[in-house]
Amino acid sequence: MRKQIISGLVLFVTLIFCFSMAPYATAGPADEVLQVVVKFDRGFNTGDFDLIASVWGHSDEVTQFGLGKSGSFRTEGWKKTVPRFMRLTRLPKGTLRLSRSQPRVTLLGDDIAIFTSYDTLGVKPAPDAPRETWLCRSTLVLQKTQGEWLIVHGHSSRFPK
Questions:
Q1: Which of 26, 98, 159, 160 is most buried (CB neighbours < 10 A)?
Q2: E-assigned strand segments in the chain
Q3: What is the pLDDT of residues 63-119, one digit of tens each?
Q4: Cβ-proximal residues to 132 (8 Å cutoff; 6+ apart), any chain
Q5: d(Cα 137, Cα 35) in Å, to the nearest integer?
Q6: Which CATH number fits domain 28-158: 3.10.450.50, 3.40.50.720, 3.30.450.20, 3.40.50.800?
Q7: How many CA atoms lie less than 13 Å away from 48 in the CB half-sphere?
């Protein structure tokens, strides 16, 4: 019994020593950018405006080209971008479904990155309507400000028919 306790203690101390000597795993900048995009997508798909707002810059320099019935349009500044995202919160759950493929992060420096992907946006315009599928191209520009990556520009466009 005493040998088992001593063996257990030696194993415990050895494990603590090994873990303390192992390098700490930290996410690189590309992984940090991807996590921001994942948060945005979660907010978009659930209509969670607070989650969307948490990953966007809130300055007058923020811009976005978004999808609309009449094609892409540009908004400038966070205050003008807010209404677009607020509309998401009023849509019935399940109206929109965004999924991305071939995501790519390109770091242009220590504090600027571009995220690109091909997207599938499922749109159900009315409860009794069939779901439409839009194939899109997306680009997000992210800037690291005060240690936090934030989206400062977004652009989505549908593939031509």
A1: 98
A2: 63-66, 73-76, 96-107, 112-123, 132-145, 148-158
A3: 998 776 545 578 899 998 888 788 777 777 778 899 999 999 999 999 999 999 999
A4: 122, 123, 124, 125
A5: 19
A6: 3.10.450.50
A7: 13
| pTM of the predicted model over 0.70 | yes
Residue ranges of the domains in the chain? Answer: 28-158
Locate 41 and state its tokens.
């997508």
Structure tokens, 151:
């989206």
Q: Confidence class of residue 14 from pLDDT cuts 50, 70 and 90? A: very low
80 exposure class (CB count in 10 Å sphere: 0-12, 13-18, 19+) = middle
Task: Choose between 20 and 159: higher pLDDT.
Answer: 159
CA distance 65 to 80: 12
